[in-house]
Amino acid sequence: MTLSSIAIAIAYLVFVVARRVRGEAVPAPKKLFLLPIVVGIIGLDSLSHTKLNTIDIAVIAMGSVLSLGLGLLRGQMDRVSIVNGAPFMSWGTASVAVFAINLVAKLALDVGGLAAGGTTSALSSSILLSLGLTLLGEAAVVCLRAQSLSAEIAPATGQYRETVQSSGRPTIWPPVR
Q1: Per-domain residue ranges of the chain
Q2: H or E element, residue 81
Q3: SS3 call for 50
Q4: Inter-residue contact 161 to 84 (CB < 8 Å)
Q5: What is the mean pLDDT of the chain?
Q6: How distant is the alpha carbon of residue 104 from its chain centre?
Q7: Which uninterrupted H or E stretch holds 25?
Q8: Contact at 8 Å (CB) between 80 and 149?
Q9: pLDDT at 74
Q10: pTM (global) more than 0.90
Q11: If you average pLDDT over residues 40-69, what whole number do you get?
């Protein structure tokens, strides 16, 4: 793992944890999934430049499944509510704890992989992939929860969010469906 990869991982962790603990509006699905996918692709690219043995592949696969599963769990523990008519999410203590458990479990799995004969370069390169997968799992659950909350407060099908102009066009476009 290069110094730049380590710097990216640390900056990413600080950025994500600070934003999520403070809370933020749930962005559109396209934006919600963009950062986890980009980080996952960077992690895959980093892995493509290393020589993997069988133990590396097994440990990376287990770490990926673990990260995705803990991301899905964290998405369930996130606080998702409606603020000013828009979905809002924030991390509580449980979400931060699951994130910390994910990091510790990934590091323990990598140490176990090294003890079993894995290579340092391959296992350390999989950190960004794991971060991308854990945030991807969280994003999937938060997206579904935010959509279900929005559907509960939206008016019935065919009605608009606001009033209708004299031309017949709603003041807020597009109409809620």
Answers
A1: 3-153
A2: strand 79-83
A3: coil
A4: no
A5: 83
A6: 17
A7: strand 24-25
A8: yes
A9: 95
A10: no
A11: 91
